[in-house]
Amino acid sequence: MKKLNVLLMVVIVFLAGCVSFEIGNTEKKLVAKIAARHVGFELEKRYPDIAVEVLALSEGLLVAEEDEIIKVILNRIVFVLTSEIINDPLLIMDIQDLIGLIEIKMDIELTEDQMAIIKAVAGGLIEGINLH
After folding, report:
1. CA distance 132 to 128
2. Of 41, 67, 96, 124, which has fewest CB within 10 angstroms of its CB?
3. Contact at 8 Å (CB) between 54 and 40?
4. Separation CA 104–CA 75 (nearest Å)
5. What pLDDT shows up at residue 98?
6. Separation between Cα atoms, residue 40 and residue 95, nearest integer Å
7. Distance between first and last Cα of the chain
8. Predicted pLDDT at 54
9. In whole angstroms, what is the distance from residue 26 CA to residue 129 CA?
10. Are 128 and 53 in contact (CB under 8 A)?
């Protein structure tokens, strides 16, 4: 019986090692958009003054074309979302996760994948704010 259990464990470990999941850019965009939509909705519902600025910045982000302008707008959105007084722990955690999805370094050119996620976040914020 012990040999059967050991053999079963070996098979399970082997199968677990063979199975891997990789999240592609399409899935990352979807997650970013869903998270941003939730953040935008909650901002409009509970913090409409913050939502007004985030909406304007997000709209500007969608039409911006130069990397430097996009980075400046994105940094302003992050600043507004993190420096304002938000007393909702769940919303704060959602904002932190959303910011974590956008890994932008100021001295490096934006990639197409990063731009797609940035645009998804901006679109999601706009949808969430307008939805409420």
Report:
1. 7
2. 96
3. yes
4. 9
5. 87
6. 10
7. 61
8. 96
9. 23
10. no
**Sign of the torsion angle spanned by Cα atoms 108, 113, 118, 121:** negative
**Residue 97's closest CA among 69, 117, 67, 112?**
117
Take residue 69 and report the two structure tokens written for it: 């302008």
CA–CA–CA angle 71, 105, 60 (5° rounding): 15
With residue 120 as reference, give the H or E element that holds it: helix 112-131
CB under 8 Å to 35, separation ≥6 — which residues? 94, 97, 98, 101, 121, 124
3-class state of residue 109 by DSSP: coil
- Asked if residue 36 lies in contact with residue 121, where contact means CB atoms within 8 angstroms, the answer is yes
**Banded model confidence at residue 46, pLDDT cuts 50, 70, 90:** very high
The CA–CA distances, whole Å, from 70 to 45, 47, 50, 63 equal 27, 24, 20, 9
What lies within 8 Å, CB to CB, of 63 at 6+ separation is none
Confidence of residue 17 (pLDDT cuts 50, 70, 90): low
